[in-house]
């Protein structure tokens, strides 16, 4: 069997799209005729051209729409397991679409663009088919951006056909991510910027993740429709764990085994183990009491967590360099100060993971270890709730988005060291709820200042935890209601039975 010539392949693609387009027009006529027969329950379709299980903000939207008595169709890729509360909710239905092929990073630029074009066409047809033929006509479509190509054009067309209100949730600007791969002067990047502005400007409403992005959309992009800043907030179940809970969690995941399998000479790093101990805690059995008590081990390491998608906007060489510098400082101290051992746990999956983990596996540090750990969605907040410090290496491609991982850490009462970029101060207040660094040297010094002679020297950490507690007290459901319910009302949905209106 021979391959079709390029010209015939192109004609076949055009013919397929024309058929789908004609079918879409016929649907448009039918939906216009039946517009007054829509069910009373408001319908919302959420669209993320990404892994649903790794889209916390969109899962949060789904739960809040359902809480306000909306039916939710959730469209995206299969992959990481979504929250059980999503899977089991009677008003939320997941619609998985096929994964497109991955683009190898080593492809030459010209071939990369050709393969990317076919990938876009594949996504275009699949998404168009799903939104028109697998889902009933919604009152609203809320789409995550990025990716902008081909998502924004498809949802705009579908919303026009079905007379549906579009809400664009601006997480970042897609063209800035593409520019990291191809460069700012690339014609493809310039086209992507035009495309994103053209198809993203017109919507019923826009949600911006930061005030900086709000200003950009309002004054430079001049978007049409309602625009509001909607900051991410941690889920209500995120919190700091008690020592007993930390003990049981660490017993279950057996993190010592991960350290042994991923590092050299782990026996010199790990404290002695027993049936009553974990890496951080000890179970104390008191014969005079029916229930055991729990306490931290004196010889425990400091647990530092960094969650990542292992992409180019996070430079993990900074963390590796900081671990080396800390190890050198501890060795040079020669007992003058107490330098506790550090365990860096990196969570997440992504394209650059293997590259960095290969480098990490060759490290021979006495006072620090770096391991990679993949957790189910329900276990992720338990790890954050057990840790002593969070590190965020996210450096926004646009300088206008805020790292969700920091919000998760704050939700678990975890102070954060975060790499500096524009607008980060909307979230991380230096020396109040966290620390901001610019390079590995500054990160190393911050870790030393926080944990040298720990736990005697813990005043700064305690102060930051108090500030974070004020952040946690903000009611996340109320924040969502204040931002989204007026948008629903402006689109003709007035749900008098919503939880927001019943209180």
From TrEMBL:
An annotated Gene Ontology molecular function: chitobiosyldiphosphodolichol beta-mannosyltransferase activity
CC per GO annotation: endoplasmic reticulum membrane
Principal subcellular localisation of the protein: endoplasmic reticulum
Compartments, record wording: Endoplasmic reticulum membrane
Keyword Protease attached: no
Gene3D superfamilies given in the database record: Glycogen Phosphorylase B
SUPFAM superfamilies tied to this protein: UDP-Glycosyltransferase/glycogen phosphorylase
Annotated transmembrane regions: 12-31, 110-131
Keyword flag S-adenosyl-L-methionine: no
Protein topology in the membrane: Single-pass membrane protein
Enzyme Commission number, as recorded: 2.4.1.142
Boundaries of every Glycosyl transferase family domain copy: 303-456
Domain of life: Eukaryota
Record function comment: Participates in the formation of the lipid-linked precursor oligosaccharide for N-glycosylation. Involved in assembling the dolichol-pyrophosphate-GlcNAc(2)-Man(5) intermediate on the cytoplasmic surface of the ER.
Protein name: Chitobiosyldiphosphodolichol beta-mannosyltransferase
